[in-house]
Amino acid sequence: MVSPARFIPIAEKHGLIEAIGNWVLEAALEQASIWRKDGMRMRVAINVSGFQMRQDDFAKRLQTGLRAHGLQPNRFTCEITESVAMEDTQVTRSAFERLRELGAHVSIDDFGTGHSSLATLRRLPAQEIKIDRAFVADMATDPGARSIVEAILTMARALGLRVVAEGVETPAQRDLLVQMGCDELQGYLFAKPMSARAIVLWAMDAPTSLAHLPAVAVQGHRHQRLAPHRDPALAAGRSDPALITPRPTEHVRHALAGNSDLPRGKVHAGRALSAAA
User: Fold this and answer.
1) Per-residue pLDDT tens over the stretch 241-256
2) What's the predicted TM-score (pTM) here?
3) Is residue 3 part of a domain?
4) CATH number at residue 176
C-alpha cells in the first residue's frame, strides 16, 4: 500500500488530484447512501485537498452529490488541513463560506503543525479541530507535547470547538486524553482501517470486542461502552443511540459521553466510541 503522503504530492504535481478528489467524494457519498438505506445512520468524512478548496465548484458538487444520494449535509464531514485553512485568501474564505451555507460539518485536520492565526480560526465555520498525531504520540513521555495538547484543548473550549485526538495507540495516551477532557479519540488502539462491510460487522460486535474498555468519569460526562444499533425506527425505545462514523482515512474515534450536540448517526457509543474507516 502506498502512503497518501507519497502519492498525493505526485498526483498534485501531475494534475491528477482533481480526478482523485472527485472519485473519493462520489465513492464516499455512494457508500453513505448504502449504509443509510441499510438502516445505519453514519457520518462520513473525507479529506479535502488544498486544490479542491481552491476550486469554485467544490461546495456545489458536494451539494449536488448530497441531494442526489438523499443525505443531510451535517452528516458529512470535510476534513481540511490546518495549513490550507490558514491560507486566508479570498478563494479559501469563499470556499469556507459556501460550506457554511451548505451546512456541512467542517474539521481542521493536523492541528498544531502549521501557523494558526487565532483571528482566522475564530472566523472559520469549523465545528472541530483534530490534534496532530505527533503530539499525541509523545504526550505520555514528553511534558512539552502534553502541554501543547492541553493548550489546544483550552483554546478550543474558548472558541466553542470540539477536539479530536488523532493517532491514539496506547492505553496511556487514551487515559491522559480522557483525563484532559478531549471530546473524541481516534486511532489504532480502537480499530484499524477496514472495508465498508467490515465496519458494519465491527459495529454489531463492538459490545463484545470493546468490553475491555473502562468506564471513566470526566468533567461530569460518563464514558459508556459501545452498544451500536440501527436507525431509531429499528431500535424503538432507546434514547441514547450509538452512532457509527466511517472515515475513509482513519480508524476509530473514542468519545466521551454526555455531549448532546452530535446528530444521530455519528459513530459513537453513547458518546463513547466512533468507528472510522
Assistant:
1) 233 333 333 333 333 3
2) 0.71
3) no
4) 3.20.20.450
